[in-house]
Amino acid sequence: MKIEITNETAADAAAIRAVTISAFLHAEHTSHTEHLIIDALRLAEQLTVSLVAKVDGAIVGHIAISPVSLSDGATGWYGLGPLSVAPDYQRRGIGSRLVGDALRVLRERGASGCLLLGEPRYYNRFGFRADPNLKLPGVSPEYFEAIAFEDSRPRGDVAYHAVFNASF
Questions:
Q1: In CATH, what number does 3-165 get?
Q2: What integer is the mean pLDDT of 51-75?
């Protein structure tokens, strides 16, 4: 299976929405608003990185990266998510490719680091670790992870774009 990773184009929005809905349909921890969050981030021009995975020209995966703010004023930090892979294509390395490529793009653009809310057993392979100095209010600290691309490490509360808290 040949996987092609490309930047999102305007024509990809409907396919990204469909993949995201299907990927989270039976997920354990979800509000089922992930597709709406991606649409709202796109509309707000806050998708810093938006990559799609294609197999035989069809979109089967997507990753979104958007800016976050930190209470200590640190800059250059981004949040990873949502990450979506169509159910029929999960456990084939597509999500790993998307994460790896998105982190590479962030590094190339001079980002300070990346944060996410996710399963440690999955994201530790990319270098993400829980950081007791970073807090996402209302979230168990072991599931809130960070990877720094430089020596400085921020401290304090993290805030994602307001669309992550919107009532859709």
A1: 3.40.630.30
A2: 96
